[in-house]
Amino acid sequence: MKAEIITIGDEILIGQIVDTNSAWMGQQLNPIGVDIVQISSISDQVEHIIKAINEARGRADIILITGGLGPTKDDVTKKTLAKYFDSEMAMDPIALEHVTQIFAKRNLKMIDINEAQALLPVKCKPLYNPVGTAPGMWFEENEQVVVSMPGVPYEMKKMMTEKVIPMLLERYTFPVIHHKNFLTSGIGESFLSKRIAHLEDSLPPHIKLAYLPNYSTVRLRFSARGQDAKAMESELEEIGHRLKEIIPEYLISDEDIRIQEVIGRILQAKKLKIGTAESCTGGYMAHLITSVAGSSAYFMGSVVSYSNEVKMQELGVQESTLTSYGAVSKETVLEMAEGLRKKLGLDYAIASSGIAGPGGGTETKPVGTVWLAVAGPKESIAKDYLLYGERLQIIERSAMLGLDLLRKAIEAQDI
Amino acid sequence: MKAEIITIGDEILIGQIVDTNSAWMGQQLNPIGVDIVQISSISDQVEHIIKAINEARGRADIILITGGLGPTKDDVTKKTLAKYFDSEMAMDPIALEHVTQIFAKRNLKMIDINEAQALLPVKCKPLYNPVGTAPGMWFEENEQVVVSMPGVPYEMKKMMTEKVIPMLLERYTFPVIHHKNFLTSGIGESFLSKRIAHLEDSLPPHIKLAYLPNYSTVRLRFSARGQDAKAMESELEEIGHRLKEIIPEYLISDEDIRIQEVIGRILQAKKLKIGTAESCTGGYMAHLITSVAGSSAYFMGSVVSYSNEVKMQELGVQESTLTSYGAVSKETVLEMAEGLRKKLGLDYAIASSGIAGPGGGTETKPVGTVWLAVAGPKESIAKDYLLYGERLQIIERSAMLGLDLLRKAIEAQDI
Predict the structure, then answer these.
(1) Residue A165: which CATH number?
(2) Average pLDDT of chain A?
(3) Model ipTM?
(4) Claim to verify: residue B229 and residue B291 sit in the same structural domain
(5) Residues 133-192 of A with CB under 8 A from B
(6) How high is the pLDDT of residue A332?
(7) Of A15, A204, A278, A281, whose Cβ has the fewest other Cβ atoms within 10 Å?
(8) What does pTM read for this prediction?
(9) What is the pLDDT of residues A191-205, one digit of tens each?
């Protein structure tokens, strides 16, 4: 089953707001077997709306429209739909009751443009909106469904979940789709694709593979489509077994999670405590770790040591180390990690020191030079990297590589 | 001048990623006089790409395509464009040199699919990519321009800023547009629009206002379009004077910069040293501060004290304070800020403690309860907030509010 999303409103086109509604709708519809074939963001203009609906009906069975239902003059969606479906408008008593109640609740006086929100094309099935003043509309014509919903995310989500999805499930018969995600770390997209080329080439036509890279990690998403849920599940499971054979050193999860969640689970299972000693990453490693709910169970804290004084005073880096080797060096980053580990009584500590740029690079240590270290119960390891990109990318990339180094260190030390 | 954006890639359609590229492109193009008439997100399929380009060329002069340029098999954009423009492919030596250098820099061996990224349709002007392996392409036909760029946000942004926008400015004649940005902090969009309603209503038709909110800050962008550059400049300057009268307490910059840059300039001018003591923000305040180039001049370091032990041991928070008032309290957050200020010898220290959720909330301290404090040379201040949203939003919002509290504290103490 194919669907197209049309979002109406200039605020998206001028970049005033980011369209997060469409991604959310895709996430809800994909699992039930609806493929979004296109998302179109267009302006509040009658001709443009009609053209977009016509184009969409050439591609999809289900057209989902959001936005353009406000009470003000620039919102023309409802009257455009009435015109498009050649429908009279009539006051809908239930919708009117809804609007009246909402105004009463908010202690506001209703004016005529508010009352007009309950005017609906007679050819639509109204989708009553319990949390806003604009009802949605469901039209059917030539086996196609055209749905119009408010653009306010909260109102749209409630209407999708409680009305539109149940009505679609009743209206159509859907194929079964299964997804399986695998997270890899420490290998680039192109090398990964070469390593798994044989697996990819041998996929049956009903299973698709997508590569979703994010800095040092690449997510592999396999999607199987068919009727036999059980058979597809075991096909996807078999792919997992094969991946474990082909890329055991890079495969870090067979779930749809981020690297910081993978690490969080390992730490919780092994009851380990960690912390970070950060120079060039400036707190971003701590941020990644603490972005995971429940991280307080294993993350104790960090020292961000941007200045050399803080490196010495708080992490116990020797002045002679800084003088002899510099702040961006194997020696310094190891002392940072070991210093923090000891100070906070941690099992593992990750440290970073590098040159994020744009200034500060030298011939021997150009911008992008980064040292990372992990101090653990058995040993400490350090590794250097030469990263490219702008300041923020170097910071983010370093932080993700730091998490991966921790993961490897825990695996190697097996404590 | 009209433009259409086409983003290619299933990851947007299935809702795996939110398309933030298009909003950014709209923000960049609007100011030079390019109106985005439609944004279309489509899948990586030859027929679909061709259809989308044809539809777009019926509406716009400039077609900007992002995504689908990766080295793997699921990326078909380049060969589709070659087919569409009926062009041979040839190895581009400069692009090949770029790819080779990137691999050499990363100390990686190049494989054939990487080399193939330098294969380009001979009919395009190559847009060399200094930060990635996929070059962009610029095609011209029948007075229309079709540009293809990588989907990786920072590669696309660099290519847009350094190549595409300058080339568009050379290729077409645009009206004269002047912009003036003002950054506000600490007031929501709707309240702000109410406060400046009179100013907004009195704007002449050739000056447009856009609200660009980002957590606790809202950027006001005034765009004047016309022929008389000098007159427009003085009109925009006059708007600045009026804003300073209407919202002096919220207006923090009349430049197009972020709050962490505003603060960086204040700190550098006043030669002040700062640091952060972070609980719920988990290092994100330090990250925001250190995302600014040159921040090592005023940022010394941070202690992220996720556990109570670290709060006591590293920041000198009293055990009795934690027992009597809890970690999320005015008393604790003040001791954190004062502890760090003293320990690192700072002029100002910002501290945070709150409940980012989803767990950990109680009846009296629900998820979203956040205390922020700033300790300064004259006094310390603390403030509580009740923030909404998911974990990551609460973290990011808290961090930006912390920066704003620092700004206010420096202003109030005038040191």
Answers:
(1) 3.40.980.10
(2) 93
(3) 0.80
(4) no
(5) 188-191
(6) 98
(7) A204
(8) 0.80
(9) 999 999 999 999 999
Produce one character per residue of B314-325: b if its CB has 16 or more CB atoms within 10 Å, e if not: bbebeeebbeeb
Instruction: Among A182, A290, A336, pick the best mutation site for testing chain B contact (most B Cβ within 10 A).
Output: A290
Instruction: Give the separation between CA A159 and CA A183, rounded to whole angstroms.
Output: 33
DSSP string, B245-314: HH-TTTEEESSS--HHHHHHHHHHHHT--EEEEESTTTTHHHHHHHTSTTGGGTEEEEEEE-SHHHHHHH
B408 three-state secondary structure: helix
Q: Are residues A75 and A104 in the same domain?
A: yes
Q: What parts of chain B have a pLDDT lower than 50?
A: none
Domain stops at, among B222, B253, B284: B253
In this structure, the answer to whether residues B21 and B163 fall within a common structural domain is yes
Q: What is the pLDDT of residues B133-178, one digit of tens each?
A: 899 999 999 999 999 999 988 899 999 999 999 999 999 988 888 8
B64 touches chain A (CB under 8 A): no
- Kindly tell me if the per-residue pLDDT of A354 is higher than 90: yes
A265 and A370 together in one domain: yes
Return the structure tokens found at B291: 């995302």
State residue B87's pLDDT score. 96
Q: Are residues A194 and A227 in the same domain?
A: yes
Based on the structure, what is the number of domains in chain B?
3
For the record, the structure tokens of B408 come out as 């206010």
Give the range of the structural domain holding residue B235, as residue numbers without chain letter. Answer: 176-253
What residue type is A177 in one-letter code?
Answer: I
A41 shares a domain with A148: yes
- Look up the CATH number of the domain holding residue B339: 3.90.950.20
Answer yes or no: do A227 and A269 share one domain: no
Most A-contacting residue of B30, B307, B336 (CB-CB within 10 A), to test interface: B307
**Last residue of one domain, picked from the residues A125, A146, A171:** A171
Angstroms from A224 CA to nearest CA on chain B: 14
Of the two residues A112 and B46, the one the predictor is more confident about is B46
If asked whether residues A139 and A283 sit together in one domain, one would say: no
